[in-house]
Design brief:
The complex is a heterodimer of chains A (75) and B (375). Chain A is α+β, with helices and mostly antiparallel strands. Chain A has one domain: Translation Initiation Factor IF3. Chain A is built from 2 helices and 4 strands; from the N terminus they run βαβαββ. In chain A, strands 1-2-4-3 form a 4-stranded mixed β-sheet, covered by helices on one side. In chain A, strand 3 and strand 4 form a beta hairpin. The radius of gyration of chain A is 11 Å and the shape is globular. Chain B is an alpha/beta fold and 375 residues long. Chain B folds into 2 domains: 99 residues, Oxidized Rhodanese, domain 1 (3-Layer(aba) Sandwich), CATH 3.40.250; 260 residues, Metallo-beta-lactamase, Chain A, CATH 3.60.15.10. Chain B contains 11 helices and 18 strands. In chain B, strand 8 and strand 9 form a beta hairpin. The longest helix of chain B is centred in the last third of the chain and has 18 residues. The chains are: A alpha+beta (75), B alpha/beta (375). Chains A and B meet through helix 1 and helix 2 of A and helix 2 and helix 3 of B.
């Protein structure tokens, strides 16, 4: 999936992936896609809940070799 | 204001002593709804940490100043962040060291009582999950009943007592937690006892725990006797120590009884469960002190944090022992069962030796509440 911006949050522990995601999202316009890469196991449930609360859409996610990738569409 | 760490042992004492505490849980709503730190005099506020990144002003009015405040999250990182924000706002708060992960794994050792000839019994209360395991001391030797995978905590305790733990008993093949029996036996050179009827698919060698088996150990001549009491699993076996204590595993708890469905055989095992509860236990000495492998409610803990009761008393108060009608009993244990424990299939396979998850995966598999009882 084509992203307007890619955030590398690999190796970061909670709460940093969400803090960085929130900041990166702030630099995008509505409808644009942010790709987030993280290794923290709690990232999926937290990003899902955060996106929902903030009106963003988790378009897709994938896991490969311990890296979780998320594509978020700004609301 | 400074931010203080509260460790799991300090939190355990607050639970056991029924102290008041305000918990600000900053995990997701789903995680909080599924499972939290229970305390009879605890009060709660759940606000996910990601709603507090820009500041805590919105919740300041909801965080009391006349009570200790503990911020809790999954692993501790987010709770430190929120605790620091509260501290900057002038509040005196603590965070839970290691978060819910550590809380889930903490074992609080409580002495249950003395045995004749100098033996002792300790109950390890896993407050975060409701599991109970036991260490029985006889001279310089120890035995364990239903030990959990958290073997470092038992090792440390045995070292403090100056004993060597050589006999590990599992009352059944567990579905709600990963057993530490085989690991402990391997590390101490001891013996792992498991009921053979639960061990059809087990991939390692063990000592069969058969009906009537007697194991005597240590300088204080402590005797463990096995009594076959199926129903939670087909192999479920109770243990009687020195004809005084009855370890019931997951067959009989203080407030409720075991569920027969975790190996997929609810219908088949209902009559076994009934026979164990309404015939075999009834024929035993009613002064035996029952110690189960789980508790469900904090009200089951006495003032010292122990979970035990006289067998005869349970026949008066335990709801699962009051159902004389067989059909009604069948309905009780096969309908309206709570959800099955998280990852119970994988946990069973791990306990059979069929899969070997790494420690992080084991932690993940056991996260969440315990659900081994009928009600």
């Amino acid at each position: 999936m084509k992203a307007n911006k890619v955030l590398d949050a690999k190796g970061l522990a909670c709460p940093m992936p969400i803090i960085r995601t929130k900041k990166a999202m702030g630099e995008l316009s509505s409808g644009e896609i942010l790709e987030v890469q993280a290794t923290d196991k709690g990232a999926k449930s937290d990003l899902t809940a955060w996106a929902k609360a903030g009106g963003h859409e988790l378009v897709d996610d994938a896991e490969q070799d311990g890296v979780f990738t998320f594509w978020l569409k700004k609301g | 204001m400074t931010v203080k760490a509260m460790n799991a042992s300090e939190l355990s004492k607050k639970v056991i002593n029924k102290e008041p505490l305000f918990i600000l849980d900053v995990r997701n709503e789903d995680a909080f709804t599924d499972w939290k730190v229970d305390g009879e005099n605890f009060s709660y506020l759940n606000v996910p940490y990601f709603d507090l990144i820009d500041g805590v002003e919105d919740i300041l009015d909801d965080v009391p100043q006349d009570r200790d405040v503990l911020v809790v999250c999954a692993k501790e990182g987010s709770s430190i962040m929120v605790a620091e924000l509260l501290s900057e706002a002038g509040r005196d708060v603590s965070y839970l060291e290691g978060g819910m992960k550590t809380w889930s794994e903490h074992l609080e050792p409580v002495k249950v009582g003395d045995l004749d000839n100098g033996g002792e019994i300790y109950q390890f209360v896993r407050l975060g999950k409701g599991c109970l395991s036991y260490m029985i001391v006889s001279g310089d030797e120890g035995a364990m009943i239903d030990p959990l995978r958290l073997v470092d905590q038992y090792d440390a305790f045995a070292k403090k007592l100056g004993i060597k733990v050589l006999h590990m008993f599992d009352t059944h093949l567990h579905a709600d937690h990963i057993s530490g029996g085989r690991r402990l036996a391997e590390s101490t050179g001891g013996t792992y006892y498991l009921p053979p009827k639960d061990a059809d698919e087990v991939t390692f060698s063990f000592e069969p725990l058969e009906d009537g088996k007697v194991v005597t150990f240590g300088g204080a001549d402590v005797t463990v006797r096995a009594v076959y009491t199926p129903g939670h699993t087909i192999g479920s076996t109770s243990l009687i120590v020195n004809e005084t204590y009855l370890f019931t595993g997951d067959i009989l708890f203080l407030d409720s009884i075991g569920r027969p469905d975790l190996a997929g055989k609810a219908e088949d095992w209902v009559s076994d469960l009934r026979e164990s509860l309404y015939v075999r236990y009834k024929e035993m000495d009613q002064d035996l002190l029952v110690m189960p492998a789980h508790f469900a409610k904090l009200s089951e803990l006495d003032e010292k944090g122990r979970v035990l009761a006289r067998l005869g008393d349970l026949y008066k108060v335990n709801t699962g022992l009051q159902v004389e009608d067989e059909d009604e009993f069948r309905r009780l244990v096969s309908e309206n069962l709570p959800p099955q424990p998280n990852s119970y299939q994988e946990i069973r396979k791990t306990n059979m030796g069929k899969i070997s998850p790494d420690p992080a995966e084991e932690t993940e598999m056991e996260i969440g509440p315990n659900r081994c009882a009928v009600s």
